[in-house]
Structures are given as structure tokens and as C-alpha cells.
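Intended use. Records like the one below are meant for learning the mapping from a protein sequence to its folded structure. Do not use them to infer anything beyond what is encoded.
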Amino acid sequence: MTNEPELCPICDAELPPRARFCPSCGAAVAASIAVEERRIVTVLFADIEGFTSLAEHRDPESVKDLLDTCFEQLIPVITDHGGHVDKIIGDEIMAIFGAPVAHEDDPDRAVRAGLALEPALHRVAPSLRLRVGINTGEVLAGSVGPAAGYTVTGDVVNTAHRLVTTAAPGEVLVGERTQLATTEAIAYDAR
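Structure written out for the chain above:
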């Protein structure tokens, strides 16, 4: 029988013995992750523009290698701004600012991360463009599905996804509530 280290249910970081909080993400580990709660969060979607057509003409292994390289640049931008990568689906990433760990300036952090994503992508894939959609509002946060993974649900997520599909390549498109929360720190153009 092996003594495997206990892992944080949020970020999978190794926990010290008898830890009450994760030293990596700050999540309470004594409480069950199955608890659902309403939270105000900012959801960010980023989609690599044109990746599908690029992948049609490449070997699957080189497609995976390119995606890995891209996400190795994008994920740290999100986490450095205090976001939580919720999921990666194909060439798209979903991140949450405000869950599981909240900051008073989560909308600002999300927009700043969104603005920093394309320059990070250009360092490894200068020919690729990124579309970003960001939206703020109330969600239900907790475990969802048979794997009981932590995520957020609600119309805020759907609207953020609609924003990313509407954004032009190279554009960061934000919802009204995100804009109102960040308008003193970030200059916006009307679309």
C-alpha cells in the first residue's frame, strides 16, 4: 500500500499533511467541493482563430503539439492574472475569474488577461490570431457531471461564449456588466 499525497480538489496541487487550505490556489480543502453556491464571476473564452482549417492539412500529432505549445503560453497568462482555467475544448479555452478564489477586481483581471493573451500566442505562433469574449454576472459554482468537476453554470457562461464567437480575430469583446465594472481602468471602443 502506497501513501499517495492528497491533492487539491480545485487545482490538483499536492497538499501538505493536515492542510486546511491549498497553498497553490487558496481553496479550502476541508470543505467538500460538492457544495454549490451562487457567485459573481467573470468568464473568459479565448478561441484560436483559423485553427480548424489549419488542422485539416496537418498530421494529428503535429496539431496536438501546436495546441500544447499555444496553451503553454496562454494558461500562465490566465493564472498570473488570478484566473482559473475551467476547461480546454479543442482550440478554445474557458477561464473563470472569481471562482474558486475571488478577488475584488476580477472583471479587471479578466480583461487584462484577455488583452495579454494574443501577444502571448504570437510569441509561439505568429500566424495565429485569437478571439476573446468576456462576461460578468451571477453563476452557480460547484461540481457538475459524473466526474464531479468544479465549474460554473448559467447564462453568463453562454453569453461569454456568444461574445467570443462574435469577436473579430485579435479582438477582446466584453459584456456590458464587465465594461461597467472596468470602465475607470480600461478604455473601450463601442462596437
